[in-house]
Every structure is written in structure tokens, then in C-alpha cells.
Amino acid sequence: MHNENKLDKLFQKLVDNTISEMELDCLMELINSSDPDDVKNNILAKHWENVKTGNLPIKQRIKGDSEVLLQKILYKIEDIEKKKKVRTFLPHPNIGFWSGIAATFLLLAGVYFYNQNTVETSTVPISIENDPNSGVITLQLDNGTIETISENGERKITTTNGNLVASQQGNTLQYTAAEDQNKLVYNTLNIPFGRQFDLVLSDGTKVKLNSGSSIKYPVRFLKGQDRKVFLKGEAYFDVTTDKAHPFIVNADEMNIRVLGTQFNLSFYPEDEDISTVLVEGAVVLYKEGADINTNTSSQLVPGQMAEWNKINNTMTVKEVDTNIYTAWKDGYLLFKASPFYSIRSKLERHFNITIEDRSGRLANQIYTATFRNETIEEILEAFKEDTHFEYIQQGSKIIILDTNINLKKMPMKTN
User: Fold this and answer.
1) pLDDT tens digits, residue range 327-345?
2) Cα(362)–Cα(342) distance, integer angstroms
3) How far is residue 221's CA from residue 202's CA, in Å, rounded to a whole number?
């Protein structure tokens, strides 16, 4: 009941354009933890009734930003429905009910920090949540437009004046530094599970993005300012040296600051740790908002890995074999003394599948193996040679069976 009241209040702030950025984040978290049907049928429906009776104040908004915000909220609800396997929502008997809500929220839903005369004056972009299960690579432009990218395609991205911003050649999107800018303009590249993609930033920095990753970055870095990008997922960075403009990668609460170096950064929301593995050069890690010159920062040397535990707020640094953590960028799945529960999450991301382990004995089983170009079936067969198990596959879901189950009763093929 408490969450429902808070949701109601935050939705009211959303539609009357008084919501803060922190409150917007809180709203999205509450939506994530709530029943989607309740949100749709109760909260949204209630505010729609207020719209029809003219009880909502209308303030100046930008249509483009409103569309992005609405899409973010409704998309989040749809994604939760899929994850929780809730029943398909049946529309209100009034055929115009939800179309009316959508049209109205397109006009009303805005946040105070986007209340500008034009989209181009916005300094902080709003990012649509990446759906790693979509199977589609997308590029979100600064104005909220979302474009689909084909891995075999070719394209050019230009400004309204026709100046070249970036060009795509197959699996690589490369930005140009040809045009001067006086403000930061962001793009966001979203990579789904089962895919990888290469990005070259305007300063020449190369970024290889692993499956299920999203990166937000300036179309062009500004003179006199740090080169800062934002990552969710995993990426390998080969950073162009520029002593006057440090390169910073933000991953949740952590910042990784470099001048010119190569390192791997992994930050998946479902993982407890944010891990940074340094291959060449030097990096300094510090919490967002902290002073880098104090003893709150940690510096790595090549061959070290830093793990920041998001739950305990602790950092550990140790020597590692960097190949284990960077092999993915060359197409390898490399596991060295890894527990199956860790291997499972990597396989799920790599193949865009889900693996349900009902055996009750595989989670902590340790494996060492290297794969390249093998199918998921071939990988599972290899693991079976070490520890026997049975599994069934239904579409993109694999179920590792409890051996006490009578397989004859299962209506699916066993492997």
C-alpha cells in the first residue's frame, strides 16, 4: 500500500511537470517492483480520468522529450510483464482508452530538467532502458529518435546541416571529429544479448561492446573538458592518449579515469561486482562524486583487476591472467576454474538464452574450458562429459533437469 501511494504521488508529479531527476529514478524503480497490471489499470487509469476532466496542469514541454519519457515508462512496464510472465493485458472496453492515455502523456509527460525551447539545448540526455532480449542493435540519437542498426549495413549519420557525424561499415560505427561543437550532444548504442559491436569515438578511442551492453557517449568531446562516457554491461576500451583531456568511464557508482590505455570493464546490473581489468597503461578508480586526489581512489597497474562490490561497498585488487577476462573480444568463451553459476550467466548473454538449473548440484561445480564457434548444445555436451546431467530445450530456454524427474513424462526432447 505504501508503494502504491508513492507511485500515485510520483505519477502526479510526472504529469504536472514537477518531478525531479531523483524522483524519476525512484518512479522507475517502483514500476520495476510493482505488478504491471496494477500500474496500468490503477495508477495510469486514474490519471487518465483526471486528464479527461481537465484536472492536470499543462506546462511548456518538448514533444520529443515527452515521447522518449513515455516510451521509457511504457517500455519498462512491458519488459516487466515479460520477465514476470504476467498475462497479456486486455484493453479497456473503450477502444480509445489506451490510445487516449498515450496521446495525452505525449503532450503532458515531461520532467523539469528538459523544459527547454528546443531539444538541442538539452545538456543531459535521457536514456531509454536497453532491452537486451530484443535481438536488435539500436542507436538512440540526442533528440530521442531510435534507429535500428544492421550488423551488415552501411549508413551515414549527419547533422541537420548535412555535416557528417558518424558512418557505419558493417559491425563498426565510427564518429568523426570534423565539426566543432560548443555543447555536449549524446548518442546511446544498445547491444542485445547474442551480439557484439564495435564503436570508434570522435577522439579515435576504440570500444568493443559485449552482448547485453549499452554505452552513452558524446558525439564529439569538447575542448577543455574530460572525455566521459557511461557504460552498462561489458566493454573493452582502447583509449586514445590525450593528456589534456582525461578519459573517464562511469559504471554505476564507479568512475575509471585514464589518459591512454587498454582495459576491460564489466558492469552488468545483475552482477554484484563492477570489475576492471587493466591490460596496458594505468587507470584510477574512484566513486562518483569523490575527489580523485584523496585516498579514496585506487590505481591499477597492468595485470591487475579491481572488483568493486556494490552490496558491501568494498574494493579488492588482485593479480590476474588478463586473457581470461578479455578473450571474449576475440570470439572466445574462456573459463578457468569457474563455477557453473558464473558460466551460466555468460552463456545466457552470449547466446541470448535462459538456463534454468533444476539439478541442485551444478551451481558450484568448477569447470575449465575454452570454446569458439561452438553451439550451446555442443558446449553443454562438453560439460556433460565432466559431470553428467540431462537437459531439455524449448525455444530459447534450456532446463537442466533434476535427475529424480521421470523423463518419460516430459513432453519435450531430451539431450
Assistant:
1) 999 999 999 999 999 999 9
2) 11
3) 7
By the 10 Å C-beta count (0-12 exposed, 13-18 middle, 19+ buried), 318 is classed as exposed
Q: Identify the three-state secondary structure at position 342.
A: helix
Contacts of 408 (CB under 8 A, 6+ apart): none
The CA distance from 106 to 215, in Å, is 26
The crossing angle, in degrees rounded to 10, of helices 97-108 and 45-52 is 80
pLDDT attached to residue 124: 39
Cite the DSSP H helix spans in 16-84.
21-32, 36-38, 45-52, 63-84
Separation between Cα atoms, residue 137 and residue 139, nearest integer Å? 7
Q: By three-state DSSP, how is residue 14 classified?
A: helix
- C-alpha dist (Å) from residue 10 to 49, 53, 187: 16, 20, 28
Cell output for 111: 520532467
Give the chain's end-to-end CA distance (angstroms, integer).
47
- Is 275 in contact with 325 (CB distance < 8 Å)? yes
CB-based contact 402:377 (threshold 8 Å): no
366 within 8 A of 337, measured Cβ to Cβ: yes
C-alpha 224/C-alpha 88 separation (Å) is: 51
Cell numbers given for 301: 597497474
Residue 396: its pLDDT value, please?
92
pLDDT of residue 44: 66
pTM for this model (two decimals): 0.67
Tens digit of each residue's pLDDT (9 = 90 or more) over 357-397: 999 889 999 999 999 999 999 999 999 988 889 999 999 99
Q: What would you report as the CA-atom Rg of the chain, rounded to the nearest whole angstrom?
A: 23
Q: In this predicted structure, what is the pLDDT of residue 47?
A: 60
Cell, residue 156: 551515414
**Beta-carbon count within 10 A of 121 CB:** 10
Q: Who contacts 319 (Cβ-Cβ below 8 Å, separation ≥6)?
A: 303, 304, 305
CA–CA dist 96, 128 (Å, integer): 26
